[in-house]
Each structure stands twice: as structure tokens, then as C-alpha cells.
Amino acid sequence: MPAATQPLTARPAWKALEAHHQKVRSVHLRTLFAEDATRGERLTVEAVGLFLDYSKNRVTDETVKLLVQLADESSLRGRIDAMFRGDKINITENRAVLHTALRAPRGAAITVDGANIVPKVHAVLDRMADFANRVRGGAWVGHTGKRIRAIVNIGIGGSDLGPVMAYEALKAYSDRTLNFRFVSNVDSTDFVEATRDLDPAETLFIVSSKTFTTQETMTNAQSARDWSLRGLGGDPRAVARHFAAVSTNAAKVAEFGIDTANMFEFWDWVGGRYSMLSAIGLSTMLAIGPDHFRAMLDGAHELDEHYRTAPFDKNLPALMGLLTLWYADFFGVQTVAVLPYEQYLKRFPAYLQQMIMESNGKYVTLDGTRVPCDTSPVYWGEPGTNGQHSFYQLIHQGTRLIPCDFIAFVETLNPLGRHHDLLLANVFAQAEALAFGKTADEVKADGTPDWLVPHRVFEGNRPSTMILAQKLTPATLGKLVALYEHAVFTQSCIWNIDAFDQWGVELGKVLAQRIVPELEGKDEPRLGHDSSTNNLIRRCRKAKSRG
Ligand code: F6P
User: Fold this and answer.
1) 3-state secondary structure of 195
2) Is the peptide bond before 385 cis (omega within 30 degrees of 0)?
């Protein structure tokens, strides 16, 4: 039987990795470095301006060889080609997966259902650029003739996290005379706080929703419409000057009352969490301008080409995906921390949480059977150095193994005295401390009293990967986004899961729809939930009527 058709855990590479894991699982990184003076230079890959040092991972050359063999036995190359080609690899929704087409150069040709989609992508980009230039340049004015000064993106999940992350990440490149806000939560506090100091005459709302049916977004959009009209004298024509929409669903946009001339389209072959470089990035383009936006697309495209063509042992996303799979499936690792040493990337971990966990948080394979191993670990993180004074204690001395991705830049965008050297010193020091720790002998040699020694020992052998780039630019951000997107895809191919659907979010949505009238109805509802849910609903109804 060809390896790819064998169950994952029966493949030769999987079996070999199991045996190999027995041999290497207790080998310390200290030993690996002591035995190979060149390890820190050898176990690195540099491509498209990103330098990946994976030497502080618990791997040997044999591990990498076997992981690449597993990728080959899982037909990774063929699956990558199928994705880039536009095959309908999102099988549960019968959709192509072509976020890579969003950053394809103008002349490229990618066919979906018989039509080349690249000209459509560029037509929307051109419309976005025109709109962004008019708003940024003051040619686009509000209903009362005033310039737009505030832009509020309304969206949730992929229609929020990418835009927020990119806005924060690229603030240094943004037009500081414009004020950007992001409203996502159905909790009214989000909308109220975001708009409390804004002038409706100067505010443009972008309603971003792939489906244009999402409860949170439509509720916020309705409140925004009411807020605008209240502030602009109630003339419904004002909506056309103060609302734009980004969606795949023109009918719903029109039904909501937004002029489809102000609608920027994307397509069902762009997954929500893979959409920040589509029209969903309109707020980003308004902030940084069309040229920087295109530079971000070009950066992502460079990384796409690298992923598509580089051999897996020199392939940044393939290696990153395989390393995490090694920890998740052979070391039983439950979580991975992403730790950017760059304040502008403060929302990057939150962005990755959706991209990674909504993609690979699955237990069913493409065949409908249960996966025979663990799939995605939990992702979380905060910028360094802040995290060092918070949860790093657990990473250094806790009982769990938590691989870390460090992201650092040689140059800062805000040079100030010694700050940047201190920042870099910290990120390198953390990776070193995690890997090598501090032995009891070393602790004793410092003069530590015997009783205190165990508390001050660092076992080390805690893995990390360092991603180093020159400077945070729009192009670098595009590369980082594509790097993680493809690392996620790499894993999904090996686990044989559909990384592009998200059925796991549906049940809660349906149940919430059922509970809304039970909370709001005047008459006491007949409740048919479990006793806990029934009790919670009754309790709130009573408390509300008293309140
Ligand atoms: O609830 C999950 C989800 O479907 C995400 O996948 C998506 O990014 C988000 O909701 C928002 O969806 P939409 O853009 O259609 O409003």
C-alpha cells in the first residue's frame, strides 16, 4: 500500500519517529550543543528575509529527516500544489482555498470554475486603492461635507482580528491624522466605548463580514446606522457617505441598506481567518495607504513562492509546522507560546489563535474518521519583555513542556537610547535560559545555601524557535502571516483534516438564537433546556424584571 493511503500512525515515517522519540526524548539540548559545535549555525534556514533558528529545538538531523519523510509519505507536495492550483480542498464546504491568489501578481492566472480569478482580485484592489486615496486625501467627505477623520471597522473573527492586528502592527506606517477603531463584540460596551468621542459627521463605518449574516456584526452595524443617523439629522441618504461594506454577499449588503457601489467584494475561496489581505484589509489600506498595502501583499507572495518551491528541509513554513507536530504528537505538548519582541505585534498572538485553532482544532479527518493522534496545540502569547514578568516562570520551571516561538527584529522602528539592545538581549537570553537552564552545581557555585538550591535550578531543555527579521515593515508582516498560514496547512495535510471549515462554532450560534427570545419575551417561556440552562435563563429574567 502506498504510504499516503496508510493510516497516519501506520506509516513508516510515523513508526520511525516513535522509535526515534524513545531515543531522543531525554537527550538534553546541552548535550546536543556540546556534541556539535556548529549546531547553532547549521540548524537554521534563511529565506525571503526571514531567519529561522530552530537549533534550540529537541531535534537531531535524524528527526528532521524523518519529519520530512512523514511529509512526503503524507503527499504534502501534492497537497500544496492542489491548494495553489485552486482544487476544492475545503471538502466539507466544496470550496477552493486561494488566499494565495489574493497576493498573486497582476499577470498571474489561477482558475476557479473555469475563470481566471486574478484580474478580479486586482480589480477589487484597485477600487480599494481609489477609495482609500479619496478618503485619505479628503476628496471623500461625509454627509455634511466634513472630511472623514475616524474609521470604525465592524466585524468579528477573521473580519476583525486580521484588521486589528495589521493596524497595530503597521501603526508606524499609518496616517496619524486618522483615528481607527475596531468594534467586534456584541457586548454593547464595545460599540459605545469605540464611538463615545467620535463625531458622526466625520466617521466612516466599514462593515466587514464575509457572510453579512453574523449576529454580532449585524447587531453592531445596526447600532452604527442608528448612531450615525441620530447624529446626522436622520436623513437616510447619509448612510451612503458613512458606510462601506466588505463582503462576499452583495444581496445582504443591499438588504442592509448599504449602497453596493460602496461594497468591496471577496470570494468564498477566501476563508474568514485567511482574509486579512483581501478587501477585509480595507481599514488597513486606509491606515497605511495602497502602496504599503501592496508591499504587504508582495511580502506574502514571496513567502508563498518559497513554500511552493523550497525543499521541505529548507522550507520555513513546512519546518515550523513539522516541528510543532513533533511536539504535539510525540512529546504530548498541549500548548505553544508565540512571543513577539516587538510591541507593534501585540495583537499577533490573538490573530494567530483564530488562524491556527479554528483551522486545526479538529478531531475528524477528511474521511470522516477520528484522527489517531492529537491535532493543534493551544496557542497563546504576549509581547516580550512584558510576558517575562508574568507567565514565563511557568515556562521556565513549570511541569509542562511549552515550545516557544520568539519573533524579533534587528532594527526598531523607534530608536531610543539603549532600548532596542536591551530588548534583543532579553529575547536571546530567554531562549538561552530555556534551552540550557542552570544546573545545581552552577547554582551552588554562586554560593546559594543548600536548602535553596532546588528552587534556583533551571532544568532547561525547553525548546524554542527564533524568527529574526531585519525590521517590521508591511512586507515583513505579509511574510509572517503567510509563514504561519502555511505552517498550519502543513500540519493539516499530515493530520488529514480540513483546515478551512469551522463547524465547531455552529452549535453555540444556533443555541444562542434559541435563547434570545426566551430572554427577551414578555411572557414566561416554556424552557426545554437542561436544568442548569433553564435556571440561568429564569434567574436573569427575574433579576431583569426587578432591576
Ligand atoms: O464564527 C466563526 C466565523 O465564521 C469565523 O470563521 C469568521 O471569521 C467569523 O465567524 C466572522 O464571519 P463573517 O466574516 O462572515 O461575519
Assistant:
1) helix
2) yes
pLDDT of residue 3: 56
| Beta strands 50-53; 44-47: pairing state | antiparallel
Determine whether 117 is exposed, middle or buried from the number of CB atoms within 10 Å of its CB (0-12, 13-18, 19+). buried
| Torsion angle, alpha carbons of 364, 367, 372, 378, to 10 | -30
Structure letter (DSSP) for residue 211: S
Beta carbon of 143 within 6 Å of any ligand 1 atom: no
In this structure, are strands 150-154 and 179-183 parallel, antiparallel, or unpaired?
parallel
Query: What is the reported pLDDT for 453?
Result: 98
Q: Is the pTM of this model over 0.85?
A: yes
- Backbone angles phi and psi of 468, in degrees to 5: -120, 130
CA distances from 63 to 18, 351, 484 (A): 10, 30, 21
Give the whole-angstrom CA distance, residue 484 versus residue 17.
24
- State the Cα–Cα distance between residues 515 and 525, nearest whole angstrom: 10
| pLDDT tier for residue 257 given thresholds of 50, 70 and 90 | confident
- From edge to edge, which strands make up the β-sheet containing 335-340? 44-47, 50-53, 464-469, 404-409, 335-340, 378-380
Radius of gyration of the chain (CA): 25
**Residue numbers annotated as active site:** 358, 389, 509
**Best mutation site among 505, 509, 511 for ligand 1, i.e. most ligand atoms within 8 A of its Cβ?**
505
Report residue 355 as a C-alpha cell: 488562524
Q: What is the DSSP letter of 410?
A: S
Residue 506 Cα: closest atom of ligand 1 = 1
Cβ–Cβ < 8 Å for 278, 264: no
Residue closest via CA to ligand 1's atom 6 equals: 272
| Ligand 1 neighbourhood includes 273 CB (under 6 angstroms) | yes
> What is the residue with the minimal CA distance to atom 5 of ligand 1?
157
**Residue of 153, 159, 357, 359 with the most ligand 1 atoms within 8 Å of its CB, for mutation:** 159
CA distances (Å), 89 to each of 97, 118, 170, 356, 485, in order? 7, 19, 32, 17, 15
Confidence category of residue 181, pLDDT binned at 50, 70, 90: very high
